[in-house]
TrEMBL record:
<protein>
    <submittedName>
        <fullName>Uncharacterized protein</fullName>
    </submittedName>
</protein>
<feature type="transmembrane region" description="Helical">
    <location>
        <begin position="101"/>
        <end position="126"/>
    </location>
</feature>
<feature type="transmembrane region" description="Helical">
    <location>
        <begin position="21"/>
        <end position="44"/>
    </location>
</feature>
<feature type="region of interest" description="Disordered">
    <location>
        <begin position="214"/>
        <end position="235"/>
    </location>
</feature>
<keyword id="KW-0812">Transmembrane</keyword>
<keyword id="KW-1133">Transmembrane helix</keyword>
<keyword id="KW-0472">Membrane</keyword>
<feature type="transmembrane region" description="Helical">
    <location>
        <begin position="147"/>
        <end position="170"/>
    </location>
</feature>
<feature type="transmembrane region" description="Helical">
    <location>
        <begin position="190"/>
        <end position="209"/>
    </location>
</feature>
Amino acid sequence: MIVPARRRIPIIVEAIGAQRGLWFAVVVGFPLMFYAAQLAGLVLRFGDLPNYWTLYDWPSNVRRILVSTPSILDTVAIISEEWLLEIGYMNRDFGHGISEWALNIVPARMFVLMALAVMLATVLVLRVQCRRCGLALPASSPVAAGLGSALVGFTSITMYWVVCCASPTWVVGLSMMGLSVPLSLWIEPIGPWITAAGFALLAAAVYAASSPGKEATRCGRSSNPTPFDLRSHGT
């Protein structure tokens, strides 16, 4: 038996309410850990600690773009590449210095990461609530959530490397792992499709996690319960 769509939203809301601390911790902590991991990866890869940081006036830049760009599509594209913060290593051996590598905080990518964190946190609290109810969560849910998170997270990387001679992008990570720079830049256009596939998997994970389906019969219930019938489930 499949839980009707109209019953899934209350199930999800109840799970978040019951585990709100965990949910908020994942939503806030995941993006922070994601950027910390990128910075740590850059330091380990190149062996130098960051020696500069630059904070950009993102709101003013966005306002200027909105006023001066007539095309809506161009406006969205330009704003999506605007930086908020840059942390990196500056090589001072050449005049004023050359930025060899940097981690860039791009608000547009932050919004994508927040959406990823919200969906991942939702799957997690649904899973925790299922266990508390003694219900079995479909194995497809954590698998889809993990794969979807990996796809969205990888295409949300905002590292810069002077060798790539490009704006901060996820393909820099491919180059740092050994893939040739021309090939990495060649596959960059498929990034949005990979991101979309990741979110589709995350949506499927939330859908599956909010409906244990046939596996719920392992709990000995005569009918398929929602994951959160706590009061009526043998307590």
